[in-house]
């Protein structure tokens, strides 16, 4: 096993531990601060960052040269935005470690700072969309409890349902802006090195159009609440699955 992957496995263990601590906290009768939860997540993030640094030193560029590295970068971006996404990060990292190809790219990529810029910013956008997925899940959970009038201890830990809707919208806006910047960087890098494949270009356009449609629906047709939560969750799942599929086609 590559030495850098050891740090990612250790980070995965810490993310899993943080996730368990979160679940145990939700089962309590009321909210209680858990410094250990935050510390565990933060340590996992630090090890995660070490992995990316070491992999970057190995490939001599931003570690986004294959589907494994890009997927791990998505998980890292999610933690970077918000250190309470342990369950999602655990699942994404586990899929990357156990199910995705980690064979280094045989042919060297043409060198251009725009290549790394567009890839890193686009992946950070996926981190924002991942948090929108988490926020949408929280919204549906809280809505279900309100309708059933059976409030569990988790209800006390979640932000008000109106705030969740606003947070979801802001995360999609943030992700959309970064994705737009990444696509601009991609267009510039393509004009310089010209190595993007047709499936990747189509995927980027479809993903951009999907989130653009969500923002337009909110602005012009007042798409809010449950519909926004469901759409944001389905959009992220679609983008993530098609992203993996596109990388298999390259």
Q: How many domain regions?
A: 2
Rounded mean pLDDT score: 78
How much helical structure, as a percent, in the residues? over 70%
Strand element count: 0
Low-confidence stretches: 29-33
* CA-based gyration radius: 19 Å
H/E order of the elements? HHHHHHHHH
Q: What share of the residues does DSSP label as strand, in percent?
A: under 5%
User: Major sheet, described briefly?
Assistant: none
Structural class: mainly alpha
CA distance, first residue to last residue: 25 Å
What best-fitting shape do the alpha-carbon axes yield? Answer: flat
Q: Provide a count of the helices.
A: 9
Q: How would you sum up this structure, described in words?
A:
The structure is a single chain. With 250 residues, this protein is an all-alpha fold. The protein has two domains: 85 residues, no CATH class; 140 residues. The protein is built from nine helices and no strands. It is flat. The relative contact order is 0.11.
């Amino acid at each position: 096993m590559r030495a850098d992957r050891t740090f990612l496995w250790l980070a995965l263990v810490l993310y899993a531990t943080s996730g368990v601590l979160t679940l145990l906290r939700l089962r309590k009768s009321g909210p209680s601060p858990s410094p250990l939860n935050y510390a565990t997540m933060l340590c996992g993030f630090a090890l995660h960052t070490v992995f990316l640094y070491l992999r970057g030193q190995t490939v001599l560029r931003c570690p986004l040269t294959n589907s494994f590295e890009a997927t791990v970068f998505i998980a890292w971006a999610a933690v970077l935005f918000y250190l309470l996404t342990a369950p999602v990060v655990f699942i994404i990292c586990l899929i990357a470690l156990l199910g995705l190809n980690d064979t280094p790219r045989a042919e060297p990529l043409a060198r251009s700072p725009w290549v790394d810029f567009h890839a890193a910013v686009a992946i950070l956008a996926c981190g924002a969309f991942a948090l929108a997925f988490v926020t949408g899940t929280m919204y549906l959970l809280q809505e279900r409890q309100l309708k059933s009038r059976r409030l569990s201890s988790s209800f006390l830990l979640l932000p008000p349902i109106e705030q969740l809707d606003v947070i979801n919208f802001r995360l999609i806006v943030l992700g959309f802006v970064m994705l737009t910047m990444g696509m601009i960087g991609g267009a510039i890098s393509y004009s310089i090195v010209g190595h993007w494949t047709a499936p990747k270009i189509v995927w980027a356009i479809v993903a951009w159009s999907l989130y653009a449609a969500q923002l337009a629906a909110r602005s012009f047709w007042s798409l809010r609440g449950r519909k926004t939560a469901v759409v944001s969750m389905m959009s992220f799942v679609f983008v993530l699955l098609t992203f993996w599929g596109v990388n298999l086609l390259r």
